[in-house]
Amino acid sequence: MSDFIASTPSDEKEYVLFCDESDRHGAFYSNFYGGVRIPASRLLSVEQTLREKKTHLGLTSEIKWQKVGADVVERYEEFLATFFDQMAAGRLHMRVMFTHNTQVAVGLSRDQQDQSYYHLYYQFLKHSFGLASIPTHSAPPRLRIYLDEIGDTREQITKFKGYLLGLADIKTIRHSGGIVLEPNSITEVRSHDHIIMQALDTVLGSITFRLNDKHLEKLPGTRRRGKRTIAKDRLQKFILSQIKRVTGKLHFNIGISTGRSASPDAAWSDPYLHWQFVPKNIQINKAFHKR
Questions:
Q1: Whole-angstrom Cα distance, residue 156 to residue 58?
Q2: Which residues, at least 6 apart from 49, have a Cβ–Cβ distance to it below 8 Å?
Q3: Cα angle at 148 between 271 and 47, to 5 degrees?
Q4: Which one of 145, 186, 205, 281 counts the least CB within 10 Å of its CB?
Q5: Alpha carbons 92 and 43: distance in angstroms, whole number
Q6: pLDDT in tens, 256-275
Q7: What is the predicted pLDDT for the residue at 7?
Q8: Which Pfam family is one of those matched by this entry (predicted)?
Q9: Is the pLDDT of residue 88 over 50?
Q10: CATH superfamily of the domain spanning 3-288
């Protein structure tokens, strides 16, 4: 039985969502979003476990996908094995969402097109974590959302945060028991300061890397891959093996949505879920099909 179940989650007062994003425009797939949900009562112990592992491995700088190279890949594997151990034990849950470039949304207004990044981010937070399937709590739990620094204008960020506050008013979420989400509970943070976000960045980066065929990139003027590309390819294969381990899906395909388990609250309780978002109205652009 997982620690999450044993800790009687119905008494949990707060959940923390760590959120990150990657390539907005990739060769084949775009709009990558990733997140980790963790009960606030587990946060300190999980962070301590990950920090201790990082220290033990001699990793002194921030762990990031961009920093993966031959000199750290083995230690990154060990660190991420610990991260997935926490996931397998039910102490945290991870979600990923992305879009396929062949599926082009049609019928959008100019504003919808301009704000598509934020609209998709909202859909990710609304659906991916199973807020409409939240277990019964003694009182509606608070939700704290940590957004990795987005880098857009302050006006855009403020507007987006206001949009996210509406999550608490969604009918399906209120009917499940509801959540408490306050303006000061939505914050931009630096991944440097949050070890869970560093693990999230690395896993999400590996998925972006593989789906957009960056593992095939050659050094300029040669037929050889660089050492960094080879190291990243090794790490993405390891991460895929870990996803298969915690989900039990031995034929897991990172290019499509993963099926949920048979549990009635699977959207909430499954350790890892992977979602290819498909707009309601689309046209197919075959130019972005992989050969």
A1: 39
A2: 82, 86
A3: 55
A4: 281
A5: 9
A6: 898 888 888 899 999 999 99
A7: 44
A8: DUF3800
A9: yes
A10: Ribonuclease H-like superfamily/Ribonuclease H (3.30.420.10)
